[in-house]
Amino acid sequence: MIVVIGVALFLAFTMAQLGSVGKIAMGYGAGITMLVLGLVTERRETYKAFGRGLLAGSWATLYFVSFAAHFIPAARVIDSPLPAILLLLVTAAAAVGFSLRYRREWTTVFAFLLIYVTLGVAAWMHLASFNLLATAICAGAVAALAWRRGWMRLLAVGS
User: Fold this and answer.
1) How far apart are CA 28 and CA 25, in angstroms?
2) C-alpha separations of 139 from 44, 126, 136, 149 in Å
3) Which H or E run contains 86?
4) Against a cut of 0.85, is the pTM above it?
């Protein structure tokens, strides 16, 4: 969590000379670097917890940078709300897909929460028809995954 806050502050305050595109590029670079380091580090038993912390931080960073691409004026590179919401959904869906490799129900629950946060933002942006379709798709994915894996808590939280 501290790393994510550090990346956010780094993007917001110390990189004014780079402009919006530079801030977003550096944010994605930091998120991808954390993802790669987390994957490498978690393979070693001694550093497994640290590596998983890096992985969680990487997804939070990638999601924040995707959010900032439209919703934070100092980093805005996407002007229209619909592509911004689609980018957030793709990032959240990638986090869900990545979480499945651990076969842990609560890891996937938290990843799905990113999608529901995005749908909340879409509702706030008054994208009603898009939001209805995306919510139906997400609920179907939650139900199918919960049924397939036998994860009833996921079904209870995600529906």
Assistant:
1) 5
2) 36, 20, 5, 15
3) helix 81-99
4) no
